[in-house]
Every structure is written in structure tokens, then in C-alpha cells.
Amino acid sequence: MIQNKHISNWLFFMAFMVFSMAVIGAITRLTESGLSIVEWKPLMGAIPPLSEAEWIRVFELYQQSPEYQQKNMGMELTEFKNIFFWEWFHRLWGRTIGLVYALPLIYFWIKKQIPDGYKGKLIFGLVLGGLQGIMGWYMVKSGLIDRPSVSHFRLAAHLSLALLIYGYLLWLGFELRQMKKVESSFCLRRHGWVALSCTVLTMMWGAFVAGLDAGLVYNSWPMMGAYWIPPELNYFTAIFVEPVSVQFVHRWIAIFTGFIILSFAYRIKSYLLTVMVFLQISLGISTLLMQVPIPLAAMHQGGAFILTGLILFYLERMSKK
User: Quick one: CA dihedral 32, 37, 43, 44, positive or negative?
Assistant: First the structure.
């Protein structure tokens, strides 16, 4: 049906906006801009400072934060404006996503174009978006109390919710397109879901790496300096909180995940998925070797979302009618 195509196109566009948000978020984090705005104004916060007096006010608020006092003491207003931009743009993009989702949803609802069984699903997408805004602020608050950085656990939760929203929008869009199903066994479908689960787990550990700046230690591959297993990896909890151990787990979970996805791609004869796996692993290794340059690191995060989307595409086609 034509209206189904319109709605699915809208959902795909929304998924693209969430993908873009993830890349913008990566740049915000990599430029250390995420703690530049210490207020949360869901509505008025969309308007940046428009006068010198307002710039001075928000800068003075930032000067009271742990990041300024412990890392950026002496920063000038001009420098502050640079980091302010990325956090403001990140939040503005989030607000824009909310509007671009809510307004068409209202239109489709009034025009009675939403297929049976999808009203609740689309409302749930709106709820997820609201929760993501709250989660974002909850993450930022962890860096405004006594530490000059956000909790890497909250960062991982923020990324997880973004990935959930992205995947949810794509899945609904795929469903509404009513793509031709392909014959598949339970074993093959299970293989696909394992590949997806491993991808998500790898991304979560990637968030730990980002939150702890763990990509700036042991910038070598495949060994970590002179070690295959770094000496810091000496107790279980280290793999969650110690930068070297977190990087060690992330790099080897990523390789394991790569093999899982490649074997799945071989079984379903997907050259595109195969190429994407090699590209993503190459981006990860290059990011590490080059000590986390912003363009490569942002592409690496974006690649993870693309990889997830491809796996979801094949899984939806294999799902039962």
C-alpha cells in the first residue's frame, strides 16, 4: 500500500537521523565538548546564547564545573564557544529528531494512514526518544559533580538506547515494506541473532573504551606493546573499569564478533555484509594505531550502526510471516 511506503520511508529517514546523531555524539565526545553545557533546558535550550552577556553567563556556569576546574582552568571564552557548539548542536539535533518524528506521526494518525497494529508501536518509538533525552542528561550529570568526565557506564547506556531506537525504527520500516521473505532454518536465524548480540556487546565495550579514553593506551596491533595479554589484566572487575583491560576485551570481542558475522554472511551469501565487517575492523584498528583521530573514530562508530542495520535487514527478511 502507498501509505505504508510513505510511513516506511519516514521511518528510514528517522533511522538515518538517529545514525547521524550517533556520529555527532561521537564528535562531541572526541572534542571533549559534552560537559560544556551544564544546564538542561528541554525547550529554551534550543536557542544558543545571542548576546555577549548570555555567553558570559553560560561560561561562568561552566567555570564552576569539575571539567573547567580540573582540566580547563584558564580557558578563554573563545575556546569555550568552540566546545559549546558541538554539545549545543548535539542537543539541537536530538530536539529536531523529536519534531521530525512527532509531527508526521500526528499527520498519519489524523489521516488514518497508520496500519492496524502499528499505532502503539509508533507511540512507543516516541516514548523511547523521550527516554533518550532523559538518559542523555543523566549521563551529563555524572560529570558535573566531582569528576571531569561522564560515567562510562552511563555513556554505554546512552549509546545502547540510541542503538535500540535506531534498530527499532529500521525494523518497523522493514516490516511495513513487506519485503519478500527468504527460506531459512531456525539454526540460521539463531546464527543471525547471535551475530547481532555480539555486535551490540562489542559496541557497549567500545563505549567503555571511549568513556575511559582507553583507546589512547597501547596503540599497537595485534599485540599490546610487548604483550598478548597485558599485565594490567589481573582481576575480573578490571575488564569493566581499567582502561588497558577494557581495551583488551573490546579488541578481542570485536575479532570474535567479526568471525561470527563473517560466517553468517557466508551462509546467507551476503557480499555486502562481508565487506562491511572487514571495513569496520579496519577502521577500528586504524583508529587505535593512529591514537584516535576524530574523523576515523567517528566513522568507526558510524560503521557499527551500519553493520547493525545490515544484520537487522537480513534477520527481518528471514523472520516468519
Answer: negative
